[in-house]
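Chain A, query sequence.
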Amino acid sequence: MTSMTPVNVKNLPSKFFHLYERFEECRRWIEDCFISLRSERTVKDYAEALAQFVEYTRKDPAELVKMDYGTIYELMRKFVLWRVREVGVSPKRAHTQWFALVKFFRFHKVNGEFDFPSRSIPVVVKYLDKIPTRQELAKILEASKLDISTKIGIHLIAYAGIRPVDINNLTYACVKDDLERGIEPCAVWVPQGKTGLVYVTFIPSETVELLKQYFDKRRKAGEEITDSSPLIIDWIELRKTGRVKGIQRKSLCLKITRAMRHSGIKMEENLTTVVKKMRPYSLRKYFRSNLTGHMPNEYIEAMLGHTSGLEHVYGGTRDLDPATIERMREAYKNCLQYLQATRAEATEEQIKKAFKKELLLVAGYSNEDVEAMNLDEMSDEELRSKIREKLLGMMANNGAKQRVVTVDDVDDYLAKGWEFVAALPKSKVIMRTPS
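Chain A, predicted structure.
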């Protein structure tokens, strides 16, 4: 392999792409990365790290590779310190970017010990994931300004366990068979960027309906949906270049994080010295957490794209055995009650209050009248008194005679010229004579 395929070039981060076009040092290095690294996501991360380093140092790659080891090491040290302290990236992320730069300079024969400055940047986990509850997820899915593509992205992570980075690789072909045949839960065949393998997971009818609406919207906009059409497209890229591309991980995660904030849920929680934070990846942990104990663990692992271990080799999940897939589909269907987001059930007090309001409205009070009453403190006797008072007032209206009758008697009274006034609970109706 001497050069990258067009699809690899197309998927390079935009900040790196102009370096790839202008500098041979970048072209040869990134092509070597595609050969030596298993994960395309890692290649993209490495390319982005170099682009950020070039931007930070304001030196072009051809100039950088000619510098001595000491100068390069100091620039790298200042770069990662700046990324952590000023930009706010995690130490773990800085660690990854450090080794991307190490790989670049070693590829260009810069010799030396590139020890990560761990004393200045300790690589430790400073926060835990805050996994949303079902009620919190419901609020996220109802957040203001949440567009349909982001909502689908949330469904794919929370209901199917798909990694945000793998959503970029999903196409119409990944759901086509079950979607077009109306099979639910619908299978999603996921090409996995991390391993290069394909695994299967599922989505409920709610997600299927969203996808159908989304594809209809795109067709009306003039897009021809084919097997290779991205499941979720990057609208910004489409507007800027006219190209239809799958949404990138960073863009999707940014939109999901925005929806979380707009939902009003609490995204951080302090536990002594550790902080729990909710992030898009927390939705994937929601998937696993809510299925644990309700589905065979090997099925959960398989739907998360974890296909190693003897239980997967001999259980059929790794080999995508059709009979095993159908058992997984049935198990998933039986567990939707634990997975799909729900609003918190109304309390007994809320139900009583709603019932009081309905009775008062039926009796003839206006919404404004009811809102002015303190329904929380109103006793049953006070409620009956209010209704009686209103009904007696109605019966005296214009001297017209009124009567409470059963629903079965309504036709007889109408035949005698009486008029319908209002419906009451327990199949009772108020009728009156013409005034």
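Residues 74 and 80 are 10 Å apart (CA to CA). Strands lie at 127-129, 186-191, 198-203, 268-271, 274-277, 402-406, 419-424, 428-432.
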